[in-house]
Request: fold
Amino acid sequence: MITIQIQQLDDIHEAAKEFLEKVGHWKLFAFQAEMGSGKTTFIQALLNCMGIEDPDGSPTYSLVNSYESPMYGKIYHFDLYRIESEEEAYDIGIEEMLYGDGMCFIEWPEKISELLPDNVIWSYIRVNQDGSRTISIDI
Reply:
């Protein structure tokens, strides 16, 4: 288990860089955390560090945003909060994205846990009492 601390919002880009350095060649990431813990904000920082200058924000209504990184290639950001069934995930073509060559960052992965490949890396964001965040990466 790898942990990364984010003391304040100003530290988020350094934490995102550290995350990318530590995860190396992995491509599938499931982010599990409570509502409001900073999943989208952290993923946007990751996208910035990957060369995406203006990420679209949370794909809450579209379920997935797609990006092309000059350094990492195709990247998918999923927000599955509003998904009602795994069938909806199939309808957006999730299998093709999960099993393709792109990187995937998935918010609310528990909604499709049965569809996730074995090589997904589970990442947990915990809000600490002082408002800081701890990211745990289960590698």
